[in-house]
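Section: Multi-chain targets

For targets with more than one molecule, the full set of components is provided together so that the structure can be written out for the assembly as a whole rather than chain by chain. Components appear in the order listed by the source. The example entry contains two components.
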Amino acid sequence: MNVFGFLGQMFAIALALLLAPLLTGWVNQCRAWLQNRSAPPLLQPYYMLHKLFLKDVVLAHGASPLFRFAPFVVFGCMVLACAIIPTLSTDLPLAPAADTIALVGVFGLARIFIALAAMDVGTSFGTLGGRREMLIGFLAEPALLMVIFTTAMISQSTSVATIVETLAHRDFIIYPSLAFAGIAFTFVSFAENARVPVDNPATHLELTMIHEAMILEYSGRHLALIEWAASLKLYAYSCLGLALFFPWGIAEGDSFLGLLLAIPVLAIKLAIGGALLAGIETINAKVRIFRAPEFLGTAFLFAVLGLLVRLLLEGRV
Amino acid sequence: MPALLPIDALLIAACAWLVLGIAGLVAPRNLRFISKTLFPLGALVGMMVGLVALGFLGESPEVAVLAIGLPDLPFHLRLDNLAAVFALLLGFASVGISIFAAGYFRKGEGTAPGLMCLQYHIFLASMLMVLLADDAYAFMVAWECMALSSFFLVTTDHRHAEIRRAGYLYLLIAHIGAIAILLSFGVMSSGSGDYSFAGMRAQSLSPFWGSAAFLLALLGFGAKAGLLPVHVWLPEAHPAAPSPVSAMMSGVMLKTAIYGLLRVSFDLLAEPLWWWGVVAMSIGLATAVFGVLYSTVQSDMKRLLAYSSIENIGLLAVGIGLTLIFHAYRMESLAALAMTAVLYHCLAHAGFKSLLFLCTGSVLHATRERSLGKLGGLIHRMPWVAWLALAGVIASAGLPPLSGFVSEWLLLQSFLFSPGLPHPWLNMVVPVAAAVVALVAALAGFAMVKFYGIIFLGQMREENLKDAHDAGPWERVGLVWLAGLTLALGVLPSTVIGFIDAATRQLLGTGLADKVREHGWWMLAPISPERASYEPLIFLATIAAAVLLGRQLVRRLYHGRLRRSAAWDCGYVFQSARAQDTAEGFSQPIRRIFEPMFRMERHFPTIRDEKPYYSVKVEDHFWHWLYLPVARLAERGSRLITRLQGGRIAIYLLYSFLTLIVLLLVARP
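Its structure, encoded as tokens over all components, is:
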């Protein structure tokens, strides 16, 4: 591990921590514009985090140590996820620690902890949220793994860095399978990030919420960490999608110039992606919880189709 | 004086277990002597078995002949690397379970402690002998000892009719399996009269007879392991047995069946056919999906774990199937990857499933309750058990950085290579099977959140749970040992693969260890780091660093103030433990989405009910489609035969006379 790689890694993590709330703010702003509301300031998520960190934690009587421990674990998992997904450069010293399958495992670990924490206080909404989150989880995870399998078969590797290098820096080939995988990935990331067709991040109507129901009992710094982790997750998914399907612009190796160039490219890609996300959220309505299996079943079908297209039509390209 | 060979050391260990068992009969009612002296000594012997096997791995096979049993039919014994891996599993798992058992057994629970001690140690010794046996005769004797001793252990609490029924079912299916195994050995000896394994290896069977032997072995060992459709005994017998016995059966005994299947398919049968792998994989996938779906809808904590064991056995069968396919096409390095996944998962499952079963034992003792609907909030009263169970739950859900994830990762990696198969459609169907494996892994997470969340978290659902006490010191040591194994298997995969690789090399001629060793002990890269890598320690360290740094920074920059108050719950004042999800409520989405998979009897309350109640009963389709028709057929058949039984001696004499006449007519000198 050289010094440059280490610094690049630290920079990638710091950038993720700083940019993630900005991305959330940008999506909220776009959504407000599209829905003809006056938009909150772009930096609103930072004010929120600051306010929450200043507040006291109000802990329920029945809360166990697991409840206080879980936000930190969820936050740690998301930091790791952001650390191994190439955003600016593929030269990440931490990248060999986890490949794409382990990345799915990181998200799974975070999910289990937040679902358990939701069940910890023992309120009706908490358990309801935990149960629904695990439902979405077991529907989304296989689809995500199949998307990853498709990309892994194209690049003959499950390492994120190798996948990006293969797709971005070799001769340009159109892979029809990637189109299917991309659609499936979009579906999955909507579900995983509690966005509109499956869940509504702005809701506080008790019976419809999933993610918000799980974190009802949290307050103060714990809530701040969970909110931060949620925006890190959105950032990680966006960057993973960009890395798998639009990898151009990510620097390879340790060239300082490439790194400098990658920053505006990433910013533009995220801005467009965020605007699209807001657009899709605006033109869709939240579906009933028992329509969610249909939504994610479609995603799974697309992912398997992508895999079959890869195996049937593309052969060994 | 010649040095003590490892095989002799293992035989001494088996004898030591037998002696400990018999010592239990000296004072069958002296609980203190038995639990505080004999069980810890048994754990010590287990440690010795584990260490001897660990030290042996990588050596060349050793044989021994024991002149016991029938004249001219001695026991042939052989210790090779495959047996050593499973002896390692048996030894190390039994350390934790025996120490836990030292603190577990109480006065006045079913069988006298001395008798229980005898059965338990015979069970251990016979499992060791199954691994060492080198001829069909010794194997079957040890196999039957294992089945019978575990039958008596299952029926420890024989005063309950349902436990007797569970034991009977177990015994029945164990014997159907034993017959199939015996027939399989018969086919493999192919009329040569030589029933030693060396003789069977020397036979070259035609594809037809080879397939017959494989399918019989799959049925026979599948009946012991709990593969579909001979799985029904497992969810009955595991909950019936005392928890250390459930842990031993689920963690170790099921693995002896996997051992048998590996022994037959890769060692005794020389030429595997590709479709054997397809059969094993299809049955495995069906078993895994079935097991995990049923485990999510259980309301009894031990039944939930038993179904989860069925799921894990299914995944092992999938891995064996994949190995067979690769092996049949001579893609040995890929076969080695899949085989490593199988062996790794055997070890991982032995650790985490024993741990979880023992945790249910502690909960059972503390609360006298097995039904999830009457538990809850135990993390406040039983912190030791709760936190150690969390390790088992994460491993069982197949999540990093614990043991279950490593084997799942290896299995998925080997699936990624299946498009290289030189077969027109297999190379397309097999990768899609990985989708099912992914679904199973994700559903396992659901089942585990249900298990943990409902037992340990939330509010206490019953008043008497306030008096629950944590596990005692012996129990804690046993749990810590197994949790430690789960952690070690999770974070040191390369080291572990370095050990178990000897068995892979023995069966397939090639292994992973050389490639794995190239990259340092902290990194697992079975093919190359560019292709795939996983570094659990760095993984764990990064998360831990983020957790600690996050905590310190928040405290330094802001504050660490905290106050307690009533739960918010959207401002709802009347909060009670009844408002939480029940076990049935938690699994409602699964029942709804996978409705055709279950046979349900539901009762919904109506508005006119005086005493409204809701009930749901989930039953296994196999009972109604397979077992009850077969049972009815058997009953009808036996009723026909009963007609022969007139009860009068004159008629019986007539039968004998007629038989004699027929024989005289048929038989010619």
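Chain B touches chain A through 86 residues (CB under 8 Å).
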